[in-house]
Amino acid sequence: MQPATNNQLQTTNNELLSFRGIEKAFFGVKVLKGVSFTVPAGGMVGLVGENGAGKSTLMNILGGDLQPDAGTITLEGSGYAPLNPQDATRRGIAFIHQELNLFPNLSIAENIFLTRFPRAGVTPFIQRGGMNRRAVDLLREVGLEIPPDRLVETLSAGERQLVEIAKALSIDARLILFDEPTTSLSERETDRLFALISRMRARGITMIYISHTLADVFRLCDDIVVLRDGEVVGSGATKTFTTEKLVSMMVGRTVSQLFPERRSLGKRGDEAEAGFATGAPLLEVNGVSQPGVLRDISFTLRRGEVLGLSGLMGAGRSELARILFGLDPRTAGEVRLNGEQLPRLSPRELIERGVAFLTENRRSEGLCLDASVGDNFTLVTLPQHGRTPLRWLAGASLKSAVERIRAVVKLDAKTSDSQPVRTLSGGNQQKVVLGKWLLRQPRVLMLDEPTRGIDVGARFEIYQLIHQLADQGAGVLVISSDMEELMGLCDRILVMCGGTLVDDLPRAQFDRERILRAALGTNQEAAP
Amino acid sequence: MNRTSRRLLDLAPFLLFVTVLAIFGVQSPKFLESGNLVNIVVQASSTGIVAVGMTFVLLTAGVDLSVGAIMFVAAAVAGKMALAGWPLPIILPVMVAVALMFSACNAFFVTKVRVAAFIVTLATLFIGRGLGLRITETRAMNLPDSFLELGSARWLGVPLPALLFGGVLLVAHLVLTRTPFGRQVFAIGHDVEMAKKAGIRTGRVLAAVYLISGLCAAFAAMVSLGQLGAVSPKFGEQKEFAAIAAAVLGGTSLFGGRGNVFPGTLLGALLIQAIENGLVVVNADPYLYPMITSVVIFISVWLESLRNRTR
Predict the structure, then answer these.
(1) Does residue A154 belong to the interface with chain B, where contact is any CB pair within 8 Å?
(2) Which residues pair with A308 in a beta bridge?
(3) Cα distance between residue B197 and residue B195, in whole Å
(4) Using CA atoms, how far apart are residues B130 and B113, in angstroms rounded to an integer?
(5) N or C: which end of chain A has fewer CB within 10 A?
(6) Per-residue pLDDT, A291
(7) How far apart are CA B152 and CA A429, in angstroms?
(8) Residue B268: count of CB within 10 angstroms of its CB
């Protein structure tokens, strides 16, 4: 490092990077509410928080993918406001993402030098010899003894990650960001990564480490910053934290009346809960497995029950729902609906039998955005409106169906039935998706992140609709990363971690810390 | 799938080529005579050159349907100029300029207006064919002998069309495998958003591949003019499909990011021509030609999809 830079570092108290008052809102919802913290030069900072706490948004701002609404970032004593990923690269910031950004159809060396190929003199050609030699040096630094002209597609996940790190070293990165780096690694690969990280620290590279694996954060980081709901709720030296304290900081928030009262429970408490437990089994899942995704999942969804599925990103929740809806294959396990065993899961047959699934991508998978509100409402029930021999659709019947559903699903009064769904807000769009399935009167409803990006008012109405459906005897499975939501909405919560079910809590035993610990996979250590 | 069958699949274009040569060779010894083999290469030149340009576009997961129409317009302009007495050294650069104008339109609409390449180039196809018919007034033009002489000329004993084909192949191969631009073409073909995030100027690279495709169409028009000596209303018609077929036969993926011009597209172009030539040599029913060609194309595309499934 040049002397000039050293001086700068000293004048700024050895800070490499500092965030001051960073704010960011999406569709009017604030996800970052004035985040400020500093990263010391040569240090290693762990950034922890629940899903949706704002970690990814903050990192996307640092990487130039997003611009903040307010606040400043200072890097090595001077302002830093990246407009695109190249700006970040130019300032020596590199990202090691969970899903890696390498081109499998190119060689290792080509991936490293993709935008900075060394040229052979004045010719337009790549100086392959020199490039490969430099790549070998970089690979050796990260502990990979592989020919640099190997295609990336022949490498394992761990090897690919090391190539990403080699790429970061090739731009002389001063700050490297790790976002959940160990999720796709084997234990040996993880050890190798950690050894490499400590070697890089010895060279003075500053690092930010984001992980849900708290044990790793404790093992690696000097300082920890805790984010919750877009705010820094705690920061300090690692030794001032305990797992207990960290977890309670991550979850501890006060809930006001964000959820409609769960009626049957509100009336009679535990007895009603027992009443649900004796409800007839509706969807019985037994030993469902898919290598690398799910391991031996068994649970029962009963009539009238709202069942929550909690877990961290990558725990296999969406994958489970997709398998249950017949969208993805499974290698083992049986599924019974109303006591009848389903030999083959296919979306078509399941819809016939009254199963509905709201995917997490409502815009791309749940709606025809350019079609009208009315058309979207009646989409899955169309056959019911064409009963004549030629299957002509009956306009009057369609119209009454839309009226019927709009009496239940309350959109703005000024929203007309002929308005394209694209023009609706996220909350109203989600209500349209929900209404579409309600018209079919589903017996089993699966919802994946039903309120993501939706404001509080619309959430409340969606919760009400879910409760209504359950009260009519349907079974509802809700996947959500928002723990408050699950605790406010559900009768029972299942917790997944690493593709298995690790906990099952009835409403009376709901406990944020217990759920989070189970989801983090630290249950055994913490249990007395 | 094990390593051997994987290796076999990778060699599929080559094995298919050898099989076709062997079948026709057994049917008629004339087929494998050196004169006939040279003939196949010369006849394959025009399609082969277009297919090289097409390979660039396919590698970025795009497609250029307008190449045949571009050939037609360039040839029509060339024909008009030749009949008006312009000399060749002026006509040939004008053909290149006409072709580049068309492909610049393709590039603009694909990269700036962000219309799907399929739609953009389909539009240029119709505009080009319409314009060509307007220029030629739907009549066939017989060109001065200077064109035919060029088509049958040899340099160091090599027919000029084959030489041009070889030159285009060599340059294209070097560009694709040895230059930053070429490697970025592959990156974009894998995932254009990821390429953008990695800092590649995707707009420039995409524009360039359509220009390259247009340039190749101009060269192919020159070769066809030299071989036919005339511009008919059907000049260059369906050349886009022959070119796509040749590239895909050579192992280039329609989904982008995989393929090569050498040996892939070369083998593909030669294979299509060898089948057609072989059917003539063995006196097959001419109505069978398109059917047999399409069966071979089907087989190779099927093998290609098998190969992709293993990845």
Answers:
(1) no
(2) A478, A493
(3) 5
(4) 23
(5) C
(6) 86
(7) 67
(8) 33
Minimal CA–CA distance to A297: which of A519, A496, A521, A443?
A496
Sign of CA pseudo-dihedral B112, B115, B117, B123: negative
Nearest to A448 by CA among A358, A347, A315: A358
Mean pLDDT on A120-138: 92
Distance from C-alpha of B297 to C-alpha of B291, rounded to nearest angstrom: 10
H/E stretch holding A295 reads strand A294-302
Beta strands A444-448 and A475-479 are parallel
Contacts of A114 in chain B (CB under 8 A): 183-184, 187, 198-200
Q: Does A128 touch chain B (CB under 8 A)?
A: yes
What residue of B is the nearest CA neighbor of A111?
A: B187
Residues of B with CB under 8 A from a CB of A: 174-175, 178-181, 183-184, 186-187, 189-191, 194-195, 197-200, 257-258, 311
Q: What is the pLDDT of residues B56-67, one digit of tens each?
A: 999 999 999 999
Helix spans in chain B (H): 3-10, 12-27, 34-59, 67-83, 88-111, 117-136, 145-152, 160-178, 180-190, 192-197, 202-228, 239-249, 266-281, 289-309
Listing DSSP states for B178-234 in one string gives: HSHHHHHHHHHHH-HHHHHHTT--HHHHHHHHHHHHHHHHHHHHHHHHHHH-EE-TT
The crossing angle, in degrees rounded to 10, of helices B67-83 and B117-136 is 20
- On whether the CB atoms of residues B119 and B110 are closer than 8 A, the answer is no
A103: CB partners within 8 A, 6+ apart? A110, A111, A114, A152, B186, B187, B190, B191, B194, B195, B198, B257
Angle at B106 between CA B217 and CA B161, to 5 degrees: 5
B190 and A101 in contact by Cβ < 8 A? no
**A57-to-A64, A79, A100 alpha-carbon distances in Å:** 11, 19, 18
The answer to whether residue A189 neighbours chain B at the CB level (below 8 Å) is: no
- Res A232 pLDDT > 70: yes
C-beta atoms surrounding A321 within 10 Å: 22
DSSP assignment letter at A190: H
Report the SS3 class of residue A339: coil
What pTM was estimated for this model as a whole?
Answer: 0.73
Residue A153 in contact with partner chain B when CB distance is under 8 A: yes
* B163: region left, alpha or beta (phi > 0 left; psi from -120 to 50 alpha): alpha
CA distance A309 to A518: 12
> In this predicted structure, which of A302-306, B124-128, B306-310 has the lowest mean pLDDT?
B306-310
A167-222: pLDDT as tens digits: 999 998 999 999 888 877 777 888 889 999 999 999 999 999 998 778 889 999 99
CB A323 within 8 A of CB A342: no
CA torsion, points B268, B270, B272, B277, in degrees to nearest 10?
-170
Q: How far, CA to CA in Å, does A29 sit from each of A229, A380, B197?
A: 11, 31, 26
Q: For residue A288, which amino acid is it? A: V
| AA letter at B192 | V
Contact A86 B184 (CB under 8 A): no
**CATH of region B41-310:** 1.10.3470.10
Selecting from A65, A89, A114 the residue whose C-beta is nearest the C-beta of B184 gives A114
Number of other residues whose CB lies within 10 A of the CB of residue A391 = 10
Out of B180, B189, B194, name the one closest to residue A101 (CB). B194
pLDDT in tens, A462-516: 888 888 888 888 899 999 887 878 888 899 999 999 889 999 999 888 888 888 8
Q: What is the value of ipTM here, to two decimals?
A: 0.89
A114 touches chain B (CB under 8 A): yes
Q: For residue A445, what is the enclosing H or E element?
A: strand A444-448
CA dist., res. A311 & res. A35, Å (int): 26
Amino acid at B207: A
Residue-level pLDDT at B89: 93
